[in-house]
Amino acid sequence: MTADQILAEIREANLSYLMLAQSLIRTDREQALFRLGVNEDTAALIGTLTPAQMMKMAGGNTLLCRFRMDDDLVWNLLTSHGKGAANDGMSRLHASILLAGRHQEAA
Predict the structure, then answer these.
(1) 13: domain range?
(2) Residues 53 and 2 in one domain
(3) Which of 19, 44, 55, 62 lies at a 20 to 30 A Cα distance from 9?
């Protein structure tokens, strides 16, 4: 991939993320806060962006979204390589509970 291709992919990901975030916020604000991992002020800002503002924000060279899992425990629960299907569901549930707790701490 060339540098220009990478920048185009970043811009496309940014626009998709902003559109999804705005749709979630407008549909169910509480779910959006949890799923996006943003606070009320950020949600209010994203919810009121115009299409032109979203295009301008998406046009940068930096990803607007980021990974929320910043420790080995959550990554291991989400990836659970080699585990059975029954344990996979339980691992994802455990990871969701951990992330929900972190969302509450940040709010």
Answers:
(1) 1-66
(2) yes
(3) 44
